[in-house]
Amino acid sequence: MSTPSVPSARTYSYLGPRGTFTEAALAQVEEAVGQEWRSVNNVGEALDDVVTGRSAAAMIAIENSIEGGVSVAQDALSTMPGLRIIGEYLVHVDFVLVVRPGMRLEDVKVVNAHPVAYAQCRGWLDRTLPGHAHVPASSNVQAAASLLENDLADAAVAPPGIVDHHALEIVARGIIDNPNAVTRFVLVSTSRELPRPTGADKTSLVAELPVDRAGALLELLEQFSTRGVNMSLLESRPIGDELGRYRFIIDADGHIFDERVADALLGVRRFSPSVVFLGSYPRADGARVAFDPRYSDDVFIDARDWLRAIVSGEPTVPLDVP
After folding, report:
1. I need a surface site. Which of 77, 106, 140, 143 has the fewest CB within 10 A?
2. Domain range for residue 161?
3. SUPFAM superfamilies recorded for this chain (predicted)?
4. By the 8 A CB rule, do 117 and 61 touch?
5. Could you tell me if 172 and 129 are in contact, meaning their C-beta atoms sit under 8 angstroms apart?
6. C-alpha to C-alpha distance for 181 and 158, rounded to whole angstroms
7. How far apart are the first and last CA of the chain?
8. At 163, which CATH number?
9. What secondary structure letter does DSSP report for 57?
10. Strand 110-113 and strand 84-92: pairing?
11. Are residues 131 and 187 in the same domain?
């Protein structure tokens, strides 16, 4: 009697080591529970895992409520082909200052911290440790771990749970400048299957301007405004081939299956020489998308039926616009 085969575990990549906010975001993914989690050193490695098939998906930070977009993640999603965002997750951010056992707060001269974390705690650090120096780290946990590996820094900015994983001492808590800080993470895969619309969705894309001239950006924005589509994120990133050339990272409220969003994307595709669709997925906050009834699905469908009737010589009826 043959033994039934056991399906192999799916692998998910995240910015490690253990204890990072990225790991906390991945813990929110139901389908990732009980699967293999692969700790990586940077965003590029996480996404390369997905592209090459080493991982089914990767969790990466994409935006912070204080610092805005995470440029390294935005650039990677813009340039690495075949990637899709399939979900987003929010993590409340807080930090502590940790030291080696026996070190006092007043003795700290050099602080190791991830650049984003450092920026979020800069005010507290400047007030409490005036004249301190900053050593950048690749992750929040790596900043703390490095204290036990070398003496380049006296302290590190780290997540509150860091002492559960490393023999360090907390000398200050709640050092973040804004206690309401939240980081937005996205789960990225190569799946082409779109999540079904929920009414509380977001669509992400990248678009380039066709030319660098007055009004070009306005024309891009009009592709959304004239369809009643709100943009919750608009950030520019240099393309890199020459000065003055930019691509725009866009988050639009709604799903590509929504007529107004689909029509806006068609407008962007006609307007821009390069458009990258990054996905439509449920919003992490669950907030339903509000829009003017003039841009409901029925209005777009009626307009197409009206045009089709004209072309085919059928009688037409006036559009019933709310």
Report:
1. 106
2. 96-173
3. ACT-like, Periplasmic binding protein-like II
4. no
5. no
6. 15
7. 67
8. 3.40.190.10
9. E
10. unpaired
11. no
Q: What CATH number corresponds to the domain at position 277? A: 3.30.70.260
Domain boundary pick from 124, 142, 173:
173
Q: Which amino acid is at 298?
A: D
List the structure tokens of 57.
């998906």
Number of H helices, E strands in the chain: 8, 15
Q: How many whole angstroms separate alpha carbon 114 and alpha carbon 52?
A: 27
* Cβ atoms of 56 and 191 closer than 8 Å: no
Could you tell me the CA-to-CA distances from 8 to 1, 40, 51, 56 in Å, in that order?
21, 21, 19, 12
d(CA 31, CA 272): 36
Distance from C-alpha of 122 to C-alpha of 178, rounded to nearest angstrom: 11
